[in-house]
Write a structure and sequence with these properties.
homodimer; 150 residues; mainly beta; nine-stranded antiparallel beta sheet; 2 helices
């Protein structure tokens, strides 16, 4: 799967779920392979609705079995780091927070404290997850795998 | 329309839009008539996904022509007051921000600065609007109409 294919497929998944993005927003969907070049296994497609200096909201799309690898959101600018709430919209996602595993299905949500290691992987149908959070600074994310570049 | 009828109708609207709430969440949908007893004209149905000391997210449901009356979110606890982003999901909503009017349709969004007067009214089909924001303190809202109790 190329990044372009992933972007188009993510736009299709969102549309099928009734989540309307503008044409411009669809074209701007970010495809993250974390610098590993194995997008089918390790990757994430995302749309950022808004990211102010107070809050952020994103739509995350994962295809079947796709993993967002272990990372944490460290403190910055006098804040304790990004706090985030995952709300599953479609499919399922296995979420691991500091070694605790839970499965989120549509209607389930979980809030991940700041600076806490977590990873998540989509189930066999893939997943759409809405993320509500404090300000997002993806450039500050600390990944456990030193090979990862965000 | 009674509050119970509004709650059930709002749950139905959300479900029809593909927005999954748990049974408990559906039963907990807040119906606000702002103390005016004219819910069909002036009212709002809402589900709060999360409201931490850093961010908040809600689903707002309005029926055809329903108005959320003019108010602002004043400063509190050393913050400038609630900043909020409205994202229209279904239907349409006329949003008035400090006298500036704009219509939001699915895929449209707008960020309302803190402490800024605004009101909004659903179009003929009603509307579902997702609200992303900083921390919400509804008890502090300042309404222009002195008859309103939130």
């Amino acid at each position: 799967m190329t990044a372009d294919e992933a972007r188009r497929a993510a736009a299709d998944r969102l549309a099928a779920a009734g989540i309307v993005l503008t044409t411009e927003e669809q074209a701007g969907i970010e495809v993250a392979d974390f610098g590993l070049g194995r997008l089918d296994e390790i990757g994430l497609q995302l749309h950022v609705y808004v990211n102010t200096d107070r809050y952020c909201a994103k739509e995350l799309v994962l295809f079947a079995g796709q993993l967002c690898p272990e990372h944490r959101h460290p403190p910055f600018d006098g804040t304790p780091g990004k706090e985030e709430t995952f709300r599953c919209r479609t499919g399922s996602v296995l979420l691991n927070v500091d070694g605790r595993e839970l499965e989120l299905r549509p209607g389930d949500q979980f809030t991940i404290p700041p600076d806490t290691l977590h990873w998540f992987r989509a189930g066999a149908e893939g997943a759409i997850v809405t993320e509500f959070s404090s300000t997002s600074r993806d450039d500050l994310d600390v990944f456990t795998d030193p090979a990862i570049v965000r």
